[in-house]
Amino acid sequence: MPLDTSIKSVLIIGSGPIIIGQACEFDYAGSQAALSLKDEGIKVSIINSNPATIMTDKVIADHVYLLPLTCESIEQILTEQKIDAVLPTMGGQTALNLCIEAEERGIWEKHNVRIVGVDTAAIEKTENREEFRKLMVEIGVGVAKSKIANSFLEGKEAAQEIGYPLVIRPSYTLGGSGGGFVHRKEDFDHALSRGLQASPTHEVLVEKAVLGWKEYELELLRDGNDNVIIICSIENFDPMGIHTGDSITVAPAMTLSDRCYQEMRNQAIKMMRAIGNFAGGCNVQFSVDPATEDIIAIEINPRVSRSSALASKATGYPIAKIAAKLAVGYNLDEIENQITKTTSAYFEPTLDYVIVKVPRWNFDKFKGANTELGLQMKSVGEVMAIGRTFIEALQKACQSLETNRLGLGADGRQSRNLEEIMHSLEHPSWDRLFHIKDAMSLGVPLESIRKITHIDKWFLTQIMELVSLETELKRYSLNNIPTDFFTNLKQKGYADAQIAWLLGNVTEDEVYNRRKELGIKRVYKMVDTCAAEFPAKTPYYYSTFEDENESIVSEKKKIIVLGSGPNRIGQGIEFDYSCVHGLLAAKESGYEAIMINCNPETVSTDFNMADKLYFEPVFWEHVREIIELEKPEGVIVQLGGQTALKMAQKLHENGIKIIGTSFDDMDIAEDRGRFSDLLKQMDIPYPLYGVAESAEEALEVAHKVGYPVLVRPSYVLGGQGMSIVINDEDLEKAVVKLLRNLPGNRVLIDHFLDRAEETESDSICDGDEVHIIGLMEHIEPAGIHSGDSFAVLPPFSLPESVINDMTEYSKRIAKALNVRGLLNIQFAVKDNKVYVIEANPRASRTVPFIAKAYDVPYINIAAKIMLGVSKLKDFKIERKLKGYAIKEPVFSFDKFPEVEKQLGPEMKSTGESIRFIKDLEDPYFRHLYKEKSMYLSK
User: Fold this and answer.
1) What's residue 247's pLDDT?
2) For residues 670-692, average pLDDT
3) Which CATH number goes with the domain that contains 171?
4) Region 242-266 average pLDDT
5) DSSP state letters, 86-148
6) Residue 416: strand, helix, or coil
7) Residues 413 and 516 grouped into a single domain
8) In which family does this protein belong, per the annotation (predicted)?
9) Does residue 405 fall inside a structural domain?
């Protein structure tokens, strides 16, 4: 069936701000779906309250509504726009819940809007645990023994009937919220109460726990003719008991027998067909008994999920794009395969490589948090790596994590504490993967590790091989390593820096030069979805060590954009938004735009976004060799946050041009000491400060500048390691901890301006002119990280003299730092005197917020200025904001109920929303002002 021509306009519901359990994978899905529908001539409207995403950008949709995700907002849109259909499957659980609420209120029927892409009856069947269990029994799919409970008494009766261990699964929640395992009767009451409270319907499923079983996922697509295809099989490295969002996952499945896989496929297709009559995407999760290969169904999600983004990047098959076309009438065989351009979308991708996803956590931001992993998701982001083998991909994933690891160990950061290691194996946290290798290195038998972790023996054998290789490598010196063995090390994912560490007294560059002498070079393979059975047209590549290089270098002038790596607190989706605009600006300026990034959730790693995508770690060795191959005009580091900025020094030292602000000028701003010296020369006020490299020096500085003091390291993002201290004892502890965690760094000690207001400016400089993008006033006082503060645009209570000083200082600093592109400055205002706290000559988390508030494509403008193809005078900038815009931070403290929610200089928010008000009499603003800024009225 071809396109349903009665659908002229579609509303896509977004997922709102980034929270743990619902991250930027839905920004990717919504963006893909919108572009896919626009290709068909359909007008697309989007509702989403997140200003940091590309999804809420005009390049994606015809109409963008930056409104709260409520039925009132839906009514407003439907009154203003003629909407024929709503697509709620691209915005996670938030979008589905809003769609159901609007349906229950009769809003869709009132405005004659159809729901496409899902059947709301299907949502009820999948989210209601008892309905799901009954349906599975009815169609002959195995499920764990379970009972539904809507009260405390029913839950106790269910537990008595089923027996321990148990799992509590609340209905209608996201990211496993409120769920958990119960091993002992004494712990049940608390777990049951938490689950009942977490469920919006006060309902939980009390289920027999299948601890130690293996966990798998299948991604499916179904069309209106009831054709179903399996896009990808995904195997969890971690067994049942850890939320799939917190599990290391591998694609395709590695340890399934063909019989079991075929049975799993058949059951998944049966499940998808049973839950309702709809066309779109679906994710199914299974558990498999490792001894018998008995299969039970865990859950089915009739929407795009976190795994859909991973499967899309893993296979090159754009699930959200195809699902959107299916939702408006097309069948699979009527849609062109985006990769080959010659076959249809009605085919199942074939992988001749291995994908590994490793989650990224930020437990350091939640002091005192329970870091043990379980049914409730706790990770804030993830990385994906592609290799020819599992172990190569696993090592590349470890290099992508931004945790200062060079791979899976072999970097001097391994643990030698056997007691700590064995506890970690039994109580999994973010570092269990590394401790498995550490245990093997200490001689713990593989079978003992398997019994404790329940991880499949095949995976453990692969890691054990690394231990053997490292033992063999230590027999050689750099100059006598056999070429075959050296090649084998590289094919197993070892970085040059790891080999250097293992050899000792050798540098990374020496290892790099030696392997080049031996002709061991990185080559690039195309992600083609069909194992090279058909010619592929897509420029999507990963690296390995073989003979044939499939990445053909063009004659065009090229620009490389370095991505921001995994999402984490302090560096989120706003930097991916910036990178996407950098790519678009480079293409519009006549360059071939090349992207390097390793985050599967993001729009920047969509193979349609860049002229060429290298899905690789943003890790020096990988970046270096791509640059050597492509020979770009330069590299953009200003848009990818701290991940890309950290590469600037290496690029500078190797004579590679940095596009925009130079390395030295960026370094002045990053080095807090050098920057304060610059302010002193310019006679711009700043808090008294000093730099220390030891606790003794820190005490001297603190006595000189006066308590309270703000203690912080140089070269960090998101306020990492910052603290405010009021005496010598606390200062000494803070400095010792910083220098231990960030060796080689220097500590900056500022006098803290107590009870000061905090403000910000963002600007663009082209070398001659400076344009102030926006001035913001924070609701919270100085001392609360800017990312955790409510920011109001434009300022609402600052005197004109303060605004003039902020503007003047911004312009002078931009000129002094020779900024080409973006500059963010943070100020403290006390007694109407403006002090400069810090300056960042790069994209900031506030630029997307300002761009959306004023409806001006500021990142695109800045990128063209960085590229040197435009000046500020070339742009006609018209701001459209009437009233005020407020940036609202969003937190995920519900995942860590044991953690104190006190905010301070270290950022803790996971995302943000935008809210518009007409004037300062708005009730929302008056409440905010009263509750959040009592200090201002004193």
Assistant:
1) 96
2) 88
3) 3.30.1490.20
4) 95
5) EE-TTSHHHHHHHHHHHHHTTHHHHTT-EE-SS-HHHHHHHHSHHHHHHHHHHHT-----EEE
6) coil
7) yes
8) Belongs to the CarB family.
9) yes
- Distance, in Å, from the CA atom of 723 to the CA atom of 814, rounded to the nearest integer, reads 28
Identify the residue whose tokens are 């249809």: 344
Residue at 744 is within a domain: yes
At 738, the pLDDT band (50, 70, 90 cuts) reads confident
Which of 208, 229, 246 terminates a domain? The answer is 208
- How many whole angstroms separate alpha carbon 670 and alpha carbon 674? 8
In whole angstroms, give the CA distance from residue 136 to residue 703.
Answer: 70
* Residue 931 confidence (pLDDT) above 70: no
**Cα 470 to Cα 32, 473, 474, distances in angstroms:** 44, 5, 6
Closest CA to 644 of 632, 658, 631, 655: 658
The answer as to whether 682 is a domain residue is no
pLDDT at 589 over 70: yes
Q: Which of 751, 770, 789 is the last residue of a domain?
A: 751
Instruction: Decide if pLDDT at 293 tops 50.
Output: yes
CATH number of the CATH domain containing 276? 3.30.470.20
Q: Are residues 436 and 487 in the same domain?
A: yes
Burial (CB < 10 A; 0-12, 13-18, 19+), residue 589, is middle
* Least confident stretch, 439-443, 525-529, 554-558, 562-566: 525-529
Q: Which residues pair with 876 in a beta bridge?
A: none
Asked whether the predicted pLDDT for residue 932 surpasses 80, the reply is no
Query: Are 914 and 772 in the same domain?
Result: yes
Write down the pLDDT at residue 174.
62
183 shares its domain with 229: no
Q: Are residues 264 and 228 part of one domain? A: yes
Torsion of the alpha carbons at 297, 302, 306 and 310, rounded to the nearest 10: 90
pLDDT tens profile 848-880 = 999 999 999 999 999 999 999 999 999 999 999
Same domain? 392 vs 507: yes
Contacts of 418 (CB under 8 A, 6+ apart): 439, 442, 444
723 has pLDDT over 90: no
H or E element: which one contains 760?
Answer: strand 757-765
- Give the pLDDT of residue 161: 84
Count of the separate structural domains present in the chain? 7
User: Which stretches of 683-772 are DSSP H helices?
Assistant: 695-705, 728-741
- Whether residue 133 lies inside any domain: the answer is no
478/553 same-domain check:
no
Q: Taking the CB of residue 845, how many other CB atoms lie within 10 A of it?
A: 30
Quick one: DSSP state of residue 840? E
Helix axes 847-854, 858-866, angle to 10 degrees: 120
pLDDT at 536: 59
In the predicted model, is pLDDT for residue 517 greater than 50? yes
Q: Is 562 helix (H, G, I), strand (E, B) or coil?
A: strand
Domain of residue 737: give its range.
688-751
Give strand pairing partners of 180.
168
**Is 247 found in the same domain as 344?**
yes
pLDDT, greater one: 827 or 536? 827
